[in-house]
Every structure is written in structure tokens, then in C-alpha cells.
Amino acid sequence: MSLSDTILSLFLEKYNKEPFMVTAPGRINLIGEHTDYNDGFVMPAAVDKHIQFAVSKNESDLFTFYSVDYDKQISFGLDELKAGSHWINYLMGVVDGFRQRGFDIGGVDCVFGGNIPTGAGMSSSAALCCGFGFALNELFECELARLELAQIAQRAEHEFAGVRCGIMDQYASLFGKKESALLLDCRSLVHEYLPFHFPEIDVLLIDTKVKHTLASSAYNDRRAACEEGVSLLQKKNSTIHSLRDVTESDLESIRSLVSSNVFPKCQYVVNEIRRTQSAANLLKAKDLVGFGKLMFETHWGLSKQYEVSCEESDLLVALAAEFPRDVLGARQMGGGFGGCIINLVRKDAVEKYSLAVRKKYVVTFKKEPDFYSVNFSQGVHAIDKLNRS
Ligand code: GLA
Known about the structure:
Shape: globular
Strand order of the largest sheet: 5-4-6-3-1-13
Number of helices: 11
Number of strands: 13
Structural class: alpha+beta
Order of helices and strands: HEEEEEHEHHHEEEHHHHHEEHEE
Radius of gyration: 21 Å
Oligomer: single chain
Bound molecules: alpha-D-galactopyranose
Helix content: 40-55%
């Protein structure tokens, strides 16, 4: 049975009425890591891994969710919205976001489930919030634009999950397009679609299965280090508002004034913003070889300057570099401290490469990595009756 059929039949069994159905994708990010909250550029794409929802109004004040993946049902009322790290808190955050904007959202019944691996840096939480927000927007006829839905989902992460994330994940989940990456300017919040049609290349994610428990506090710390750099630079030049406005020579001027922790963090971000712009030009010129080299550069910046990598990720990226014909680029993806490595691999070499990776990884870390080949897909959308899969 397909995912949407499973969700639909569970919903019908429980509620015996036709639901509104939505699918929300996870995302990859080709390049532009930790640049979104610095007003920089990112290059994500929505992928063919989803969370799907069957939702209907229930004419009460109660919100009831059944998670197929966790086989768990949880309900809450409007007076019970609170922060926390459970999936239910994210959904509470979305409801709160609509109410904050003045929408009189009432209760719903919802069954949801999906195939986005959690904690793998593929933004399952953004898919959860964006998909649910999209459903509320339709059911209660709020007429919010996709950007506003992305902002509600981002706010849920900030205020309900305590992660001061940027907007990349939510934006990619909502604005994704088949066979395209997005070049998003996180300052103007304007994007451009970059066609990504390379039939001979596989976008292969290798999941390290490393889940860092302190990842969210470490994430907030990185953001604080960037802000510290900016506030010092601002004292010298009031036209600087974020690391987007900063050049390498601006940075040099504060090298001796900031702690040894802050300088390399800011330097990484300034470099990564430029690198993402260069990568966009290479992609437009269909130069994936040049593009891949920049992905490797990003990885070592994330590892040595931004310090958000881990042994497992570093080993996989170093291994990728031993296959120069087969692997064009590789780097750790997402917030960091494990999760997935994104690799651009020649299709004819995927099997050989995956075998080599598995062998080395198992011998070194005594655990199996997971492999996912992904395709770039459409952003959050309703699933119509004829199109359930
Ligand atoms: C997480 C955040 C994003 C972004 C990335 C790092 O995925 O949710 O906003 O900052 O980390 O690029």
C-alpha cells in the first residue's frame, strides 16, 4: 500500500469522513550551510521523501494527532500549547502561529506519517510544520502566502522547540520544484530556480546515524558567535547589519578584538556566502566538477572553522575524495554533528562507491550507515483523490 493510502485508510477507519490530504517534502542542501541566519545565500531542494497528512476540521477546540510512525495518538486544547522537544510541541507551535496572526483556528483530527529519516539533517521537523500549516491554511481559508507559512513554521522551531534556525528548511519544503534547486537570498527572501538535470549523476545521501544530543544548543551557540562578530564590526561601520555585509578585510580588522572562537566562525560564514554565489554560477554553466570542489571546501570549513562536524562525517568526506572520478562533491549537510553526507556520484559508480563506504564505515565505527538516492521534487501540495501515492 502507498504511504498516502495507508494514511487515508487509517483516517477513514478512525473518523469515517473524507479528509484533506497534504504531502510535505524534506530537503537537501547542495551548498550554503549556516548562511541563512546570516542573511546569506543557500541552495536547497525539496526531495522525494515526505510526511503526509490526512486532516479534517472537527468543530471542537480539540486537536488530535495520530502519528503512524510512532503509533501514538496525542490531543491538546488551545489552552495547552507549550514548548518542548516532542513532535507534538512543533504542531502546537504551528497552531499558535496562526492564532498569533489573528486566525480563529479550531480543532482538527489528523493522521500523519512519512519516510523522512529523523535527525538525519533532512528537515523532517520543517516538513511536519509546513505540511500541517498548509492544511490549516486551506481548511480555515486563511489565505496566507507560502512565505508566511514558512515563517509560521520557523517561529514554531524558535519559540516551541528552542532552535533559533534560519528559514532555509521551511522555504525549501514549501517552494521546492521538480528537477530544480533553489538559490535563495535569505536577506530579500527572493529565490531563483536553478535547473538540476544531470541524468548521469546520483544525489546520494549517506546517513552517519550520528545524532548529537547537544546539537540544538550548539546550533544556537554558533548563531551567537556570528552575532558577536557582527556587533563588533557594527561599531566600526554602521552599515554592517549581518555577515552578508562583511568582507574578508573587514573581518581582519577585528581579528585581535574577538575571541579565538568567534573569528573562524565568522570567517567560515563570509567565505561560505561567496562560495554559494560562485557555486550558483558554476551550476548555471553546468560545471558540476567545479561545483563539487566547492562542496568539499564547504565541508572542511564546517569541520575546521565552524566546528560542527564529527569524526564520522569527516571520515566519509575524506573517503569520497579518494574517488575523484566517481564522486564530484561531498560534504556534511544541515545543522551538523552528524546527520547525512550529501554526495554527487556518477550513476555507474554508485554501487561500487556505496560498498566501499559501507565497508570502511563498519570497520571503523562498528555501525552501518544508510544510503538514500534522492530526486528533487515539488514543494508542499495537496494530494488530490486521483493522485494518491
Ligand atoms: C538547520 C537549520 C537551517 C540552517 C541549517 C544550516 O537545518 O534549520 O535553518 O541554518 O541548519 O545551514
